[in-house]
Protein backbone atom coordinates (compact mmCIF):
# COMPACT_ATOMS: atom_id res chain seq x y z
CA UNK A 1 0.00 0.00 0.00
CA UNK A 2 1.36 3.41 -0.94
CA UNK A 3 2.03 5.91 1.81
CA UNK A 4 -0.75 8.48 2.14
CA UNK A 5 -0.09 12.19 1.75
CA UNK A 6 -0.42 14.20 4.97
CA UNK A 7 -0.80 17.86 5.89
CA UNK A 8 0.06 19.61 9.14
CA UNK A 9 -2.57 21.99 10.50
CA UNK A 10 -1.97 24.53 13.27
CA UNK A 11 -4.67 26.32 15.26
CA UNK A 12 -4.03 30.08 15.21
CA UNK A 13 -7.39 31.42 16.43
CA UNK A 14 -9.54 30.96 19.50
CA UNK A 15 -12.98 29.32 19.28
CA UNK A 16 -14.32 31.69 21.92
CA UNK A 17 -17.38 33.60 20.63
CA UNK A 18 -17.56 31.41 17.52
CA UNK A 19 -20.51 29.37 16.27
CA UNK A 20 -20.97 25.86 17.64
CA UNK A 21 -20.34 24.37 14.21
CA UNK A 22 -16.93 26.07 14.01
CA UNK A 23 -15.99 24.77 17.46
CA UNK A 24 -17.11 21.29 16.43
CA UNK A 25 -15.03 21.52 13.25
CA UNK A 26 -11.91 22.32 15.28
CA UNK A 27 -12.58 19.37 17.55
CA UNK A 28 -13.11 17.19 14.48
CA UNK A 29 -9.67 18.25 13.25
CA UNK A 30 -8.22 17.33 16.66
CA UNK A 31 -7.50 20.92 17.64
CA UNK A 32 -8.66 22.47 20.90
CA UNK A 33 -5.88 24.76 22.12
CA UNK A 34 -4.00 27.67 20.60
CA UNK A 35 -0.84 26.79 18.63
CA UNK A 36 -1.60 23.07 18.72
CA UNK A 37 -0.57 21.17 15.58
CA UNK A 38 -1.95 17.97 14.08
CA UNK A 39 -0.75 15.89 11.18
CA UNK A 40 -3.77 14.71 9.19
CA UNK A 41 -4.26 12.57 6.10
CA UNK A 42 -4.93 14.82 3.10
CA UNK A 43 -8.49 13.94 2.05
CA UNK A 44 -11.30 16.04 0.56
CA UNK A 45 -13.15 15.80 3.88
CA UNK A 46 -10.23 17.25 5.83
CA UNK A 47 -9.72 19.98 3.22
CA UNK A 48 -13.41 20.89 3.53
CA UNK A 49 -13.10 21.19 7.30
CA UNK A 50 -10.05 23.44 6.91
CA UNK A 51 -11.93 25.60 4.40
CA UNK A 52 -14.78 25.99 6.89
CA UNK A 53 -12.52 27.64 9.50
CA UNK A 54 -9.66 29.27 7.55
CA UNK A 55 -9.57 32.16 10.02
CA UNK A 56 -8.84 29.76 12.89
CA UNK A 57 -6.28 27.38 11.33
CA UNK A 58 -3.20 27.51 9.12
CA UNK A 59 -1.77 24.73 6.97
CA UNK A 60 1.86 24.55 8.08
CA UNK A 61 3.18 21.76 5.89
CA UNK A 62 2.00 19.54 3.09
Automatic annotation (TrEMBL):
Gene3D superfamilies: Ribosomal protein L30, ferredoxin-like fold domain. Signal peptide: none annotated. Belongs to the universal ribosomal protein uL30 family. The gene is rpmD. This is Large ribosomal subunit protein uL30. SUPFAM superfamilies: Ribosomal protein L30p/L7e (SSF55129). Residues 8-57 form the Large ribosomal subunit protein uL30-like ferredoxin-like fold domain. It comes from the Bacteria. Keywords: Ribonucleoprotein, Ribosomal protein. NCBIfam families: rpmD_bact. PANTHER family: LARGE RIBOSOMAL SUBUNIT PROTEIN UL30M, MITOCHONDRIAL RIBOSOMAL PROTEIN L30. Part of the 50S ribosomal subunit. InterPro entries: Ribo_uL30_ferredoxin-like_sf, Ribosomal_uL30_bac-type, Ribosomal_uL30_ferredoxin-like. The lineage of its organism: Bacteria, Pseudomonadati, Pseudomonadota, Alphaproteobacteria, Hyphomicrobiales. GO terms for molecular function: structural constituent of ribosome.
